[in-house]
Design brief:
alpha/beta; 12 helices; globular; binds pyridoxal-5'-phosphate
Length: about 375
């Protein structure tokens, strides 16, 4: 059985009619730039996250960069982040002129390990940017406590965690600002590029509303330096159709995760672990196994598309050489890059598809009992 890594077709079957109607309305109105749907989506997504403001921008990378710039981060500053993340996190920091300082991940959650955070802080640290990796909320209480002690803001990279909850709070709503991407395959995805920043800080929001649009909120009045990074009206219209379904789609992802968990228990495969005070939204179903590359090949031969997130930690990329600083040894980030295997995961994945994936893996892997002997 062929199992794609992500299949958006079933999603389209569910909402295609509504999306076409919404896009058609934009075309008829012609308000393609900062149109009615952008403002409506910004209000709806802010309410969904439980914050006062949402600023729609062109993509997730710009959301990160603009937020750092709006907070006054400059050349020579340091921003602490996770060594295990998509490259955009580090690139956003670099584009703001700062140096990414990398902290190792927790071996169970794969998120920035708060026990290694204090020792990474220097006099140049101007922000801490945890990532809710794979859709699992980072240890926000511990991170925020250390940040407060040192008087530095926390900016969340929530690009993989739309809708995830931590102790009753949405991911993105716990720092000074939360940054989202609406890349099509994200849990809340547009039909092209898109991004957003959510915040409760009125002054920060006002600044970002200007910065994303040439530094201007009132036509031809340019008060701050800006750029052109606006959420497209057509993408906002698509996102408005999808947002009311996000929680249910996240639940379907969680059900798929439970099925994987049952089928893969007792094998030498490490499945995702999530603490009871938070909800994982499984943007990526990340497993770990010693012979990851062989498993990937076996899956591929059986028609299953799996993935690796990510083949290298941030500091392993040639583009990052000499531009990032490791806060200390990063053994868990390196192990994760060697052993991680992402299994097919999307809301409409069927039990039969999950069973097919698990069958290949259980045939391929060694039972736990055999490992111990
Ligand atoms: C997807 C992603 C981004 C960047 O989003 P784009 O919209 O592709 O620019 C940033 N951080 C993380 C963790 C991501 O997964």
């Amino acid at each position: 059985m062929n199992v794609p890594f992500v299949d958006l077709r079933a999603q389209l079957d569910e909402i295609g009619g509504e999306i076409r109607a919404a896009v058609n309305e934009v075309i008829e109105r012609g308000d393609f730039i900062l149109g009615r749907d952008v403002q409506a989506f910004e209000e709806e997504f802010a309410a969904y996250c439980g914050v006062r403001h949402c600023i729609g921008v062109g993509n997730g990378l710009d959301a990160l960069r603009l937020t750092l710039q709006a907070l006054g981060i400059r050349r020579g500053d340091e921003v602490i982040t996770a060594a295990s993340t998509f490259i955009a996190t580090a690139q956003g920091i670099l584009q703001a002129g700062a140096v990414p300082v990398l902290v190792d991940c927790d071996p169970e959650s794969y998120n920035l390990d708060p026990r290694r955070l204090s020792s990474a802080i220097t006099s140049r640290t101007k922000a801490i940017m945890p990532v809710h990796l794979y859709g699992q909320p980072a240890d926000m209480d511990e991170i925020r406590m250390i940040a407060e002690e040192h008087g530095v803001p926390v900016i969340e990279d929530a690009a993989q965690a739309h809708g995830a909850m931590y102790k009753g709070n949405r991911c993105g709503a716990m720092g000074v600002a939360g940054c989202f991407s609406f890349y099509p395959a994200k849990n809340l995805g547009a039909m092209g590029d898109g991004g957003a920043i959510v915040t409760d800080d009125d002054a920060l929001a006002t600044k970002l509303f200007k910065m994303r649009n040439y530094g201007s909120q009132v036509k031809y009045r340019h008060e701050v330096e800006g750029c052109n990074s606006r959420l497209d009206t057509i993408q906002a219209a698509v996102l408005r159709v999808k947002l009311p379904r996000l929680d249910r789609w996240n639940q379907l992802r969680a059900e798929a995760a439970r099925r994987y968990e049952e089928l893969l228990a007792e094998r030498e495969i490490v499945t995702p672990k999530c603490k009871p005070d938070r909800t994982h939204v499984y943007h990526v179903y990340a497993t770990r196994m010693p012979d990851r590359d062989a498993a990937l090949e076996a899956l591929s031969a059986a028609g299953v598309s799996a993935g690796i997130h990510y083949p290298k930690p941030v500091h392993g990329h040639t583009s990052m050489r000499g531009r990032v600083r490791a806060a200390g040894p990063l053994p868990y980030a390196e192990t994760l890059a060697r052993e991680e295997l992402s299994l097919p995961m999307f809301p409409h994945i069927t039990p039969e598809q999950i069973d097919a994936v698990a069958r290949v893996l259980t045939r391929h892997s060694v039972p736990m009992a055999a490992m111990r002997s």
